[in-house]
Every structure is written in C-alpha cells, then in structure tokens.
Amino acid sequence: xxxxxxxxxxxxxxxxxxxxxxxxxxxxxxxxxxxxxxxxxxxxxxxxxxxxxxxxxxxxxxxxxxxxxxxxxxxxxxxxxxxxxxxxxxxxxxxxxxxxxxxxxxxxxxxxxxxxxxxxxxxxxxxxxxxxxxxxxxxxxxxxxxxxxxxxxxxxxxxxxxxxxxxxxxxxxxxxxxxxxxxxxxxxxxxxxxxxxxxxxxxxxxxxxxxxxxxxxxxxxxxxxxxxxxxxxxxxxxxxxxxxxxxxxxxxxxxxxxxxxxxxxxxxxxxxxxxxxxxxxxxxxxxxxxxxxxxxxxxxxxxxxxxxxxxxxxxxxxxxxxxxxxxxxxxxxxxxxxxxxxxxxxxxxxxxxxxxxxxxxxxxxxxxxxxxxxxxxxxxxxxxxxxxxxxxxxxxxxxxxxxxxxxxxxxxxxxxxxxxxxxxxxxxxxxxxxxxxxxxxxxxxxxxxxxxxxxxxxxxxxxxxxxxxxxxxxxxxxxxxxxxxxxxxxxxxxxxxxxxxxxxxxxxxxxxxxxxxxxxxxxxxxxxxxxxxxxxxxxxxxxxxxxxxxxxxxxxxxxxxxxxxxxxxxxxxxxxxxxxxxxxxxxxxxxxxxxxxxxxxxxxxxxxxxxxxxxxxxxxxxxxxxxxxxxxxxxxxxxxxxxxxxxxxxxxxxxxxxxxxxxxxxxxxxxxxxxxxxxxxxxxxxxxxxxxxxxxxxxxxxxxxxxxxxxxxxxxxxxxxxxxxxxxxxxxxxxxxxxxxxxxxxxxxxxxxxxxxxx
Length: 759
Known about the structure:
Layout lengths: L1 H21 L15 E2 L2 E2 L26 E4 L5 E5 L2 E7 L4 E7 L1 E5 L5 E5 L1 E4 L4 E3 L4 E6 L2 E10 L2 E10 L16 E4 L6 E8 L13 E8 L9 H4 L5 E8 L6 H6 L9 E5 L6 E5 L3 E3 L7 E3 L15 E5 L4 E5 L3 E4 L2 E4 L8 H42 L2 H10 L8 E2 L2 H7 L8 E4 L3 E7 L5 E7 L4 H14 L10 E5 L6 E5 L6 H6 L1 H4 L4 H20 L5 E2 L8 E3 L5 E3 L6 E2 L6 E3 L11 H6 L1 E3 H17 L15 H10 L3 H4 L10 H14 L10 H16 L10 H7 L38
Parallel strand pairs: 26-30
Antiparallel strand pairs: 1-2, 3-4, 4-5, 5-6, 6-17, 7-8, 7-16, 9-15, 10-17, 11-14, 11-16, 12-13, 12-15, 18-19, 20-21, 22-23, 24-25, 27-28, 28-29, 29-31, 30-31, 32-35, 33-34, 36-37
C-alpha cells in the first residue's frame, strides 16, 4: 500500500504536467481564408459562401452554384442569408444539414366552393439536397383535405400522401395529428426534387365556416405541434421551418480522391452516400470543426467539456489526441471500475518517495497507459452495442416476446461480424432489392448456406416498430408458402432480419418483365394464386393469433426454383386478438391494392387482404400493373378497368394473350369471376380467404384431372368447384390509394371521392 501511494503521487504530478501542456484554446475555422463566415446571426461554413471564390464552384463540378448564399436585407433592414429565394436559418458542416424556411402549400375556396389560388403547388428541384427523413415530416391540415408529396427516389418518381377530415372543432384534438383535422407521415429516404400540393375533395363547401383552406407542408418535426387554431391561422404562415441534407455530388469518395477533387480536410473521413452518387465529409472521433476545410477538424479537449467525458468526481481527466482517459485522484485507487479511498499508510520521506516513484512510476505509466486506452476502447464498443440494441427496439422486442411467451419460436441471433462477412461488407453487388423501410442483401454463410438479409434504413421510431412487428408476426407463422424468418441482429446501427433465400424474385417481376412473362404459363399462375391464398388463409384462421397481412401485392410474393409462392414482408401486418374481428388502425397499404372500405373507415378486417389479393389475381390474368399513370385515365387503376371489362363482357379482349387457349377459356372466366367477387366494394360481400383458397385449389386439382378438357360441367365438377357464375356484372366502387406508403405519381380527385354505395 505504501508503494501504491508513492506511485500515485508520481503519476499525479505527471498527469498535471501533461494536462497543462495539452490544454490549448481550440478555435474551429468555418470559411475559407479571407472569406466572411457569417451573414447576420447565421454562420456560413464552406462549401457555402456569400461571395465569389468563397463557395464551392469548380467548373468540373456538377454542383456549381448550389452553395452560393445570397446575403441580403430583410424587411427590418437586418442581414438575411438566402438560397434559391428561401431564407436560411442555420447551416451545419458536421451534420451536413441546412435549415431553411420552406413555402406552405395553401389552397383556399370561397363559400360557393370556387378556388382562391394562393400558393397551391410548391416545388424544390435541387438534386444535391435531399429532405431530411430524421428531422422532418409531411403534414396536411384541413377538414376537407388530402395532400400529395412527389419526388425522385433512386431515379424513379415516387409519391406519398395522406387525408385529413373533420366536421366540427369539438372533434379536433390539440396535439394529435392522426387524420382528424391533421394528418402526417414519414418521408421516404433520399427523396430529391420534391413538390407537394394541398387539395380538397368537396372544395370545403361542407366545412367552409370552420375551415375554408387546405394546407400541406414539410416541416421540422420538433417545431410542429398541431392546434385547432391552425385550421384558420396557417393561412398567414407563408413559410415554415424545414431541414435539408446536403452532400458533394462529385462521384464517390474513391473517384474524388483519385482525381484530386475530394475536398475533405485533415482529421476527417469521406463517407459515400448509400443510395446515390456523392459523398459527405465528417470529422474523426475526438475532433470538431468544418470537415470540408483543409485544417477544419481539430482535436477537442474532452476534459474541458463536461458533457464530452464521463470521469467522476474522484477521477482526473487526461486528454489524448482524439480521445481521453480517466485516472484516480490522489488518495484513491481503482477498485473494479470505481475509484475508492486508500487506507491510511505510513509516510515516507520525500526523497525515498521520489526515488521509488520514478523507478516504478515511469514504467507503469507506459504499460498502464496502453492498458487504460485499450480498456476504454473496449468499454466504448460495449456501450455502443448496448446503445444500438436499445435504439433498434431490443427492449420493445423483449417486452412483446414476453407477452407472447409459449406461442412463438426462438430464432437465431446473428452477430454483426457474421452478417458483414456474409454480404462482403454489404457490397452493392449483393443487393437483391430495396423497399420503403430497408434494403435486402444476398448473404453466404461459412457453411455455404445462402440467406437474405433485410437491413432497415436509419430512420425514426416508426421504422423500428415496423421491424419489431415483423419479428413478432413471423414467429407465429410456420407455413411452406411463407418466407421463413431465420433470425435477427440488433447490435448494429440499423436492425437486421435474416430470411431464407428465395431464388427467382417476385411475381411482379415475372408478370411485368416481357422476357420473364412468357415463362409464366397459366398453369403456373393458377398454382401460384392457389398457394398464395393458402398461406393467407392460414394467417387468417390457422395461426395461434390471427394475422392480417395488410400489404398483399405482387411485389410481396416471391418464387423459388420450382415456382412455389412465398408470401413475404410482414412489416405492416397486424395480430388480431381472438375476441375481435376488426381493428381500428392508421390506414396503411400500397396504391392500387388498398381496400376502399378500409381506406374510408380505418377499420382493418381479413376482407382487406381479400380485396388486395383480388388485385393480384387481376394482374395474373391481364398482365398489367395495379396502378400506372402511363395508361389512359380510365385504365390507370387495374381494379376499376378489370371490373368494367367484366361488366361489359370484354374479359377475353383484355386477358394476356399467351395464357389463353381453347382448353382453358372457361377456367379463365371462373378465375376472373372469383377476382370480381374479391373486389367487391363492401367487405361483407367478399368471400373469405379460406373460401378463395378452396376454389383455387379445386381449379388446380381439375387442371391435373383428365376431365379438364370437358366443355360442360358435370355433377362431379360442380361438386368440386361449385356451379359457374353466369353473370360478370358488378357495381364498381371508386379506386382508393394508400394514405401512408410510397407509391406512384399522385392521387387524383376521383380516387378520394366518397363511396357511392350508400355507406
């Protein structure tokens, strides 16, 4: 104990001297030398600038002019930075974010319903900037309002939208934005070149005294809390706060570095954008400043910033380059991870203390310093994995699994390193597909087993709940026609799900790809339809807790080498309590497949899946997409055009040519008639999924039976299939589209008119 006290005295002296030498005032440059770094109260960091030569403007760079900030004067005569005629309130080089005031889409009407155009359609066409999905949300406000947000996503046009209704102010709840007076939704990742518009179904004629205008806007999430006053007062808010992510669009990091065009400075890291060309710069751990300047990132002294270190009152903080470590104060020693007081010990003379301390202390300083450094690094890694576990819904998953104890199967927990090796560090060549909530990669395990890995996008709590929900739902399912969940990984920055690998892709790809469509004969299509309904019927009635899929579509049905159907993507699915037949939920689905009754009532039932499958059945028959704005307006919605053709006895004219022959025309009519029944506007009029599965299975059996070429119905076929329906007429309801999930271009007014069947 005596030697320990002497040692700590020597270490204490050395620590104080090291700290004094390392403690220097750190300033972080923002702009290029001799360039202004502010406009009024707003800091202007490079690559942005207010005068020529002070912002990124390389003649070989496709981003010329995107970084020019015009420093002008506002109405009060104060300096005001502007970009693309929009006010700038903040620019962050470390987060690559810019805060602006974005226009509000306002669509007002007089009492007779005549439009009073103010600022209806709003657009922002700047490819180097994307709408921040973590900081913003898309909002519509009004009592007779629907809103559409369009943009470019991975080179394709994408749209999302929602609908808001109300009848009286008493029904509007302040602070709640769930469809009554206000609706909101998440924004797709990497959306560029946006435009959005607020519209009305009935021109506010029924609610004019309460709310004469429709509003739509993208707004910074933490700066919006809905109030009933907004139904009127938002008319005076021409702009609202929004956050944009920006990047350098000069190719990848590798290309920029090889050509000498990379502008990332010292102590910084170049980071490629995940889903598009371009890169961002980021200061390394322990450094702060502007990573886009040559010497912009500088080491910070974590010991001078209380929030930057976790040293306790019994410890002394020592700053290192990029890091720090904690040592016990004099009179304390390390016991486990805590510094505890030393026991009293005999005092030695100063000469003896210094002699022994110098001999022992210097050696331990080198060895102990290295041990402390690596120990802290390991501790940081453990804490980081714990943080990711909680961030990715680990606690929520544990809670839900405990509630379903005894009814679920345990899946394997994969390590982050194991999945990283399986995907070759998530190489782009391993990407199988991308969706609204993540990317699917092909992985190969050390035993050569091929798997599919779904990597969730970095986003908000809603996406984490989708991830946890998919695990809970799939643990209730054990069916040959449902994609099997093999396990998950929660210790990475984004959650990962591991599935069995399905080889031939989706039936959507086979139907709509001309090269693959010819390989998908009618016999295969009928088999796929029967297997799909068998799986859905199993979900509805044979699992321990009934499950509604809620997003049945051709893109969510996969095919293996034998063209066996596998239903996938259960992120939106719902478990139905045994004492309920319907659920009140926020409307979610995909344009063209969404049940119109569910859309208008928010009441989700098993018949909602039946309607969506009816659209899939129509796709298998006709070979057209469920929704396409490339077709004439009357044919844009497949369900409507299919029902119209059946009603007018034009079925044979619209069937896909290569699936029709003299021997199967009657069978095609029977399947079309079944699809017609599935597409009934009212859920009660549709068959159950079990009934649909039985009819299709019967047709598959007849397909293999030697009677299949008979031209008349015998008693046996009637017993198996039921007598054929003689009429194909039906009252066709309006086409409805999802209010929450990305789809195609925009929702037309006709798609949101009230149902005309008296409900």
